[in-house]
Design brief:
The protein has about 190 residues and is α+β, with helices and mostly antiparallel strands. Helices cover about 55% and strands about 10% of the residues. The protein is built from five helices and four strands. It is a multi-pass membrane protein.
C-alpha cells in the first residue's frame, strides 16, 4: 500500500461517525421537526375545527394531552414526566451501546420521539413537569397525535424489522449478519 492510500484510509477512519452519533443526529432531527410542527400547530390550528386532509380519515386539529397514549394517565402528568425522563436516559444508554446501524437508527427515532414529548411535559402549560403534550395529527375519530408519536412508531418498526431480519439470518446459521455485525473500526 502506498503512503497516499494509507493516508486516505486513515482519514476515512477518522471521518466515520460512531454509531451513537447517528442515533443522536436522528433524535435531534426528530426533536427539531416535532417542536417546529407543534409551534406551527399552536399558531395556526383550532381545538374546535378540523382541517381535513384525507376526508374524515386524517386531518389537522389542535389538542392538548395531559396523559399518555389515548389520554391514559391524564391525572398523573407528573408521573408520566418522570417516566419519560427515565426512558430518555435509558435510550441514551441504548444508543451508546447499539451494535448495528439498524438498531442505532431505530433507537434514534424512539429517543427523538420521547424527547419531543418530554420537552412538552417539562415546559408547556400548565407548568413545569405537568405540561400537556401538543397534538395535531387527527386520525379519524380514533386519536390525535404528533410528529414525536410518529417517530416512536417508526423507531419501533425499524427495531422490529431489524430483529426479524437478524433472527431469520441466525436461523439460517449465517455469521456476521448485516444487522448484528459490528465493524472493527467502530464506525458505520
Amino acid at each position: 500500500m502506498t503512503s497516499s492510500t494509507s493516508d486516505d484510509a486513515a482519514r476515512a477512519r477518522h471521518l466515520r461517525l460512531p454509531r451513537f452519533a447517528v442515533a443522536f443526529i436522528v433524535a435531534g432531527a426528530v426533536v427539531l421537526i416535532d417542536q417546529l410542527s407543534k409551534a406551527a400547530a399552536l399558531a395556526g390550528l383550532s381545538e374546535t375545527e378540523r382541517v381535513p386532509l384525507l376526508g374524515d380519515y386524517f386531518g389537522l386539529q389542535l389538542a392538548f394531552n395531559p396523559g399518555a397514549i389515548l389520554g391514559l394517565g391524564s391525572s398523573s402528568t407528573w408521573l408520566l414526566t418522570v417516566l419519560g425522563v427515565a426512558a430518555v436516559g435509558a435510550l441514551f444508554v441504548a444508543a451508546v451501546r447499539a451494535r448495528s446501524l439498524w438498531w442505532t437508527v431505530g433507537i434514534g427515532f424512539i429517543l427523538g420521539g420521547a424527547l419531543g414529548n418530554v420537552i412538552d411535559r417539562l415546559f408547556a402549560p400548565p407548568g413545569l413537569g405537568r405540561g400537556y403534550v401538543t397534538d395535531f395529527l387527527a386520525y379519524g375519530d380514533w386519536f390525535i397525535g404528533n410528529i414525536a408519536d410518529v417517530a416512536l412508531g417508526i423507531g419501533a418498526l425499524i427495531l422490529a424489522i431489524g430483529l426479524w431480519i437478524q433472527r431469520r439470518a441466525g436461523a439460517r446459521g449465517e455469521v456476521g449478519t448485516q444487522l448484528g455485525a459490528s465493524s472493527s473500526a467502530g464506525g458505520l
